[in-house]
From TrEMBL:
Gene3D superfamilies xrefs: 3.40.1350.10
Keyword Membrane belongs to the record: no
Catalytic activity: pretRNA = a 3'-half-tRNA molecule with a 5'-OH end + a 5'-half-tRNA molecule with a 2',3'-cyclic phosphate end + an intron with a 2',3'-cyclic phosphate and a 5'-hydroxyl terminus
Protein name from the UniProt record: tRNA-intron lyase
Species in which this protein is naturally found: Psylliodes chrysocephalus
Alphabetical list of InterPro entries matching this protein: tRNA_endonuc-like_dom_sf, tRNA_intron_Endo_cat-like_sf, tRNA_intron_Endonuc_cat-like, TSEN34_N
GO BP terms: tRNA-type intron splice site recognition and cleavage
PANTHER family registered for this protein in UniProt: TRNA-SPLICING ENDONUCLEASE SUBUNIT SEN34, TRNA-SPLICING ENDONUCLEASE SUBUNIT SEN34-RELATED
Origin superkingdom: Eukaryota
Pfam family name, one: tRNA_int_endo
Record keywords, A-Z: Lyase, tRNA processing
Cited SUPFAM superfamilies: tRNA-intron endonuclease catalytic domain-like (SSF53032)
Amino acid sequence: MINLYFKNGAILLYNVNDWSTLREQFRIVGEIVGNSLQVPSLPIKISPEEACLLVDKNIVTIQESPKEITKTDAEKRKLEQYETELLDAQTMEYKRARRDQLETVADQIMVKQNNDKTREEIISEELAKLTAVTRDNMIWPTNLSASTSAYENLKPVDINDILKLTTPVKKAVYSDLWHKGYYVTQGDKFGGHFLAYAGDPVCHHALFIVRCKDESERIFSMDLIGFGRLGSSVKKKSVWASLQDNKVSYISMSWLA
């Protein structure tokens, strides 16, 4: 069972292996929200529609995220030891790489200095000039899972709290598209509620932009025209989705200029 965590209205996943499982086995993409300056990183934000589907399929549990994350004394000692070992390893690797560089140019330095120093003495002098590797400038790894026991024995979240974050029509449309075999992501960037893909979004472009409407909600002509032109401009099908008699219905649109 995969654990998701509910915090400030967001459903989060902190384990990269669990994300890989959800993506590869269950076509759940989520959204990377822990971006660092260099690379995208954890956590993964799971949409309410994705979470409801996963709970219905008994694939995940959703737990209250801890209000305060603290480490035990043992965890603090373990982290300090890990940081020290990491710092020592990076210092050794930095010096080794620099020595390899100096080995290739040591003869040129000897000619330029024109003194009685040996090749090894010159290399040692240059190594002594290196900027020290410290905790401030060392390369820190990206955690692939939570590194504290604060995420153990948490209270499960009532599914009704998750349902409040979506609507019946959006929940039903997402589930229907998923059961039809599509990868489904949020469609805000393209002016819709969902984007539907034939395969993983990393390798495929979206086929459809899907907007969800309640059965009683009117669709005005300007909405039809605008949504149709939007789909045409980004080379995707514009699709309206609604619930009729508890069954998902679709209307696709094509804009012909």
